[in-house]
Each structure stands twice: as structure tokens, then as C-alpha cells.
Amino acid sequence: MAIRYKVDVMAALKEKGYSSTKIREEKLIGQSYLQQIRHGELVSWKIFNTLCALLECQPADLIEYVPVQEKEDEVP
Questions:
Q1: In sequence order, what are the residues at sequence separation of 6 or more whose Cβ sits closer than 8 angstroms to the Cβ of residue 52?
Q2: What is the spatial distance between Cα 59 and Cα 5, in angstroms, rounded to a whole number?
Q3: Which member of 19, 42, 59, 71 has the lowest number of beta carbons within 10 Å of its beta carbon?
Q4: pLDDT-derived band of residue 70, with 50, 70 and 90 as boundaries?
């Protein structure tokens, strides 16, 4: 994957006072999206919008582009 999280999003949410339970109870982010975030999977722009609002940040603070190396560049 060429795009990945720069930070531990769940830890950042917890630092801002948003536990998984609070997020679910307040219906801020669905359980399936929380699982995707936990596993380092990217989520929809709508969820990124919510994350940026909760964390008071920009999308670039959360994700980064990492070039994928070609197969011939890989060491066996």
C-alpha cells in the first residue's frame, strides 16, 4: 500500500478523550471503521473528515504517501 497512517489514530483519539466506547456511544464512527483504522486500513473521506474534526488536524497530519518499490528493487 502506498498510503499509510503517520500516527496511531486510535492512540491520538484516546489522547483527545475519545475512547472506543465513547466514539460508539456518540455514534461518531462506526465499529467497522474503527476496526479498519486499528488494522491500518484506509477509510472513506467522510471518516477522515470526522477524524480531522475530532483530532483538530489536517489529513496530511494523519496519512502519508510512501512510494512502492518495484519488484526488481526488492532483496530476496
A1: 58, 59, 61, 62
A2: 10
A3: 71
A4: low
CATH of domain 3-67: 1.10.260
pLDDT at 69: 77
pTM: 0.82
- Per DSSP, helices labelled H in 1-76 are 9-15, 20-25, 31-38, 45-55, 59-62
C-alpha cell at 35: 476496526
Cell of 66: 510512501
Neighbours of 11 (CB within 10 A): 9
Q: Helix, strand or coil for residue 23?
A: helix
Taking 60 as the threshold, does the pLDDT of residue 73 lie above it? no
Q: What is the pLDDT of residue 36?
A: 96
Contact indicator for 5, 39 with CB cutoff of 8 Å? no
